[in-house]
Protein 1
Amino acid sequence: MNLKEKVVLLTGARRIGQTVAEELAKKGASLAIAYRSSKEESEAMCAVCIQHGVKAFPVKADLTKQDEIERLVGSVVEEYGRIDILVHMAAPYPKTPWGTLTIEKWDEINAAIPRSAFWLGKKAADVMLQNQPDENNIRGKIIYFSDWSINVRPYKDFSIYNAAKGAVESLTRSFAVELAPSVTVNCIAPGPILAPVGLTEEENKEVMSKTPRKTWGGAMSIANGVDFLLKEDFVTGLILPIDGGRTID
């Protein structure tokens, strides 16, 4: 897919999302950047994108709520008249040790991760299916995000998060089948991309000892993965690890 003059709905206005947004703008895509609380970061991202000669605007939305997802999609269509690409990056990373597990926690986390992926993907894809197909019979593309660990070495004390991200991978494959042949649906499974704030030297050594590449990937690794999935039209239903080899360690 050629990104020039395409419309991207991107969720996630912090850290890696900033790099992804700018790289999309450099390739000529206009953006709508959804945020829940990071208004300043979202506005800054839009300002950077606009400097590359494209349109960009921030939209506040709580993606745990059905009506706000519908309002978000409606806002993008109202502004641009179409949606070509959904990059759904936004997700919490909640720790839930065994003694804290409750049905309420389950519902809260699943609303934020797989349920938001389901309904946002459904509403965005409904718009994409109305697009005219390009020369490769592509009407739109969806990219979700999971986690490298869930099928290999699930994190202890993150059982609900692990299950939620597993559901996103299953949804990716299911939607890829449902939306074929004209809308592709893929998922990126990041590994150690950016070191968390406050990471100790001991913790860093632990991460590197289990990462064959012996380095943090950096935000451009994710941006490059997004670029690949958007450029390559013969890939759908893929779970793409970008993890420095963690899945083979």
Protein 2
Amino acid sequence: MSEVRESIAHARSVVVKIGSSALTDLGTGLDTDRLDRLADALEARMRAGSDVIVVSSGAIGAGIAPLGLKKRPTDLATKQAAASVGQLALAHAWGTSFARYKRTVGQVLLTADDISNRAHHANAQRTLDRLRSLGAVGVVNENDTVATNEIRFGDNDRLAALVAHLAGADALFLLSD
């Protein structure tokens, strides 16, 4: 095994970013079967000794079907409305999935600007550290309801890198298409 693979295999703290297409379907919203399979893999990693933080995309996608929209919105207000509905559904789905393992989930909504603001950065870091120390899973999502120009492809990839730095993670996995 290469040195890089070895260090990833034994990483004590990992951040896993999961893209929208892994969690949602345009017609039905959240795909809870896929989400459960991802939670199964993450739980196995935690049982092997790693702390895991999830950066979850999918809030806008999860809000499309419940709002009766036929396609992904293009205007900012509708994206924000879909995100507000989807964030609830997404947090509930992660909580339900990890509850199968008697594990609690804490939602942390951030923007990239929160990471660059010293006070917000410290608060987010403390929250994530405390969630991990309590055995809970921090599920981070871009706070699309207050974001404006941040709502574009790739934001949660960038946010995941910032969260990995914030949390002092040993490894970052980007599960995106």
Protein 3
Amino acid sequence: MSSKYSESGVDIDAAGKALKGIGKSVRSTWDSRVLSEVGNFGGLFDLGKGYENPVLVSRIDGVGTKLKVAFMSGRHGTVGEDLVNHCVNDILVQGAYPLFFLDYFGCGKLDTAVITDVISGMARGCRNNGCALIGGETAEMPGFYAEGEYDLAGCIVGVVERAKIIDGSRIKPGDSVWALPSAGLHTNGYS
């Protein structure tokens, strides 16, 4: 019995081409703390010195319904950046500084131009937030997703000194709340 990826509708060559295409964007987010290479199964990151009592803070999330906006508009670079920013915001509220990010991209048929735009956006978001894009997963599953659609999720890991964790315990009457205007359409809320 033959079991070739191509017989199941999965294009390994397209995945390899996409990996080569995103390598430069991914590496642009790295510094000396990244110890792995593009395409490894796990991302390696050296926390390094300079922490007295570090606590890792992690979060996983998706772009949600904004993907429909990307599908309708044909603009895919913003969803990757939004995903990173969304995850950074979620750990920032606990006082954490982002260290690294991992992504998941699932589709029915891999379109190298689309995944390159998505990952380029993620890399831009990582660079802007000072964190490394150290790995991810690309899953091609023919017949599972509607044509031209994909799913996107990401996981971020950050660090905060234990003494600087923001947990709400120091909030008191009279404290100020700051609100910042939105820079544009972001994740979720489009269904």
